[in-house]
């Protein structure tokens, strides 16, 4: 069903209560990539307009546009045209959603899991939330099974199926889980799959060659005083066709949570993040090559950040917004891009 934003807000409240001009680029020199003969550069883009500052938000691409959605408190949908470098505003999301790795399937943007409400014990979404860029309309999707709802989880879309791995059922309390669930967008059915080797939350997942990678993250435990401390270095790998889990031979070099992850050019990239090691958010960009089971350090972000997502348009990799320090601020509104072609 397709509803107005106000109607969607009412629907979610009921569901939750029932369940409990000129452009400039500033370049930052970067080391050489595995895939390009020349050194690459991260650039900070300034275009027409600016997005709303936010963190714990989602960022995905559909066509040539980036969709910056959600975050702490009510944040509007900001849309960036990467061709014209102009920002515009989309229809208002039905509720404040944070800690969600949005995914794209058949041109639509899905929130498979996420959190809403106040820190530290935020509530998990009760239903899928779907946005159609073609119509600029929001839609309430299928109900998420009551015993499997969580946020701060990893999510991927693969061959029409949405996968949700790990996450936290109680926001930032000790509700971390190792669960893996699949939602088939064609049949509208949920399937419980094998648990991951370990529980984790506050991480992003990615798919490489039919395998789901869960890298980084932590086990949040606000009540024990270990909200940020219990980071995870092991990388868990799920073979989608075989339905089996394994552990990657090489651990994440810089364990942290809240990092963005994306698959590019046969590698898993893990960018930014937060940890107790430092007050400033991490600026590390680390790439894992499954073919050699090795990690490489790539160009650092011009400014560290956590609590945002990475998205790609063509050969350009984008990161927008996030938090500049561990925790909730400062909230950022800048646009970072890394062109993977030396021609840029």
From TrEMBL:
Origin: domain of life: Bacteria
Signal peptide positions on this chain: 1-24
Database matches in InterPro entries: Kelch-typ_b-propeller (IPR015915), Kelch_1 (IPR006652), Kelch_2 (IPR011498)
Keywords assigned: Kelch repeat, Repeat, Signal
Keyword Protease: no
Gene3D superfamilies named in the record: Kelch-type beta propeller
PANTHER family: KELCH PROTEIN, RING FINGER DOMAIN AND KELCH REPEAT-CONTAINING PROTEIN DDB_G0271372
Name of the featured protein: Ring canal kelch
Source organism of the structure: Xanthomonas arboricola pv. guizotiae
Phylogenetic placement of the source organism: Bacteria, Pseudomonadati, Pseudomonadota, Gammaproteobacteria, Lysobacterales
């Amino acid at each position: 069903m397709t509803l107005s934003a106000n109607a969607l807000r009412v629907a979610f409240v009921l569901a939750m209560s029932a369940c409990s001009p000129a452009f400039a680029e500033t370049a930052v020199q970067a080391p050489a990539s595995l895939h390009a003969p020349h050194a690459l550069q991260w650039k900070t883009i300034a275009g027409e307009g600016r997005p709303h500052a936010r963190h714990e938000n989602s960022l995905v691409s559909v066509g040539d546009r980036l969709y910056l959605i959600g975050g702490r408190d009510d944040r509007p949908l900001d849309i960036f045209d990467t061709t014209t470098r102009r920002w515009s505003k989309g229809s208002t999301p039905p509720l404040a959603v944070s800690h969600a790795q949005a995914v794209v399937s058949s041109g639509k943007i899905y929130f498979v899991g996420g959190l809403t409400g106040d820190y530290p014990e935020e509530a998990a979404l009760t239903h899928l939330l779907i946005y159609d860029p073609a119509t600029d309309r929001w839609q309430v999707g299928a109900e998420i099974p009551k015993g499997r709802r969580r946020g701060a989880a990893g999510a991927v879309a693969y061959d029409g199926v949405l996968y949700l791995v790990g996450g936290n059922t109680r926001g930032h309390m000790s509700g971390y889980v190792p669960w893996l669930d699949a939602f088939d967008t064609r049949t509208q059915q949920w399937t419980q799959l094998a648990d991951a080797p370990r529980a984790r939350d506050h991480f992003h997942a990615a798919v490489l060659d039919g395998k789901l990678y869960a890298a980084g993250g932590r086990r949040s435990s606000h009540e024990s005083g270990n909200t940020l401390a219990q980071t995870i270095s092991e990388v868990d790998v799920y073979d989608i066709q075989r339905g089996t889990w394994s552990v990657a031979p090489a651990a994440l070099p810089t364990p942290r949570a809240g990092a963005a992850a994306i698959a590019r050019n046969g590698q898993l990239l893990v960018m930014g993040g937060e940890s107790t090691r430092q007050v400033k958010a991490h600026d590390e960009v680390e790439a894992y090559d499954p073919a050699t089971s090795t990690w490489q350090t790539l160009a650092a972000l011009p400014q560290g950040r956590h609590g945002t997502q990475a998205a790609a348009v063509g050969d350009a990799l984008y990161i927008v917004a996030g938090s500049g320090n561990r925790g909730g601020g400062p909230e950022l509104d800048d646009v970072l891009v890394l062109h993977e072609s030396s021609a840029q």
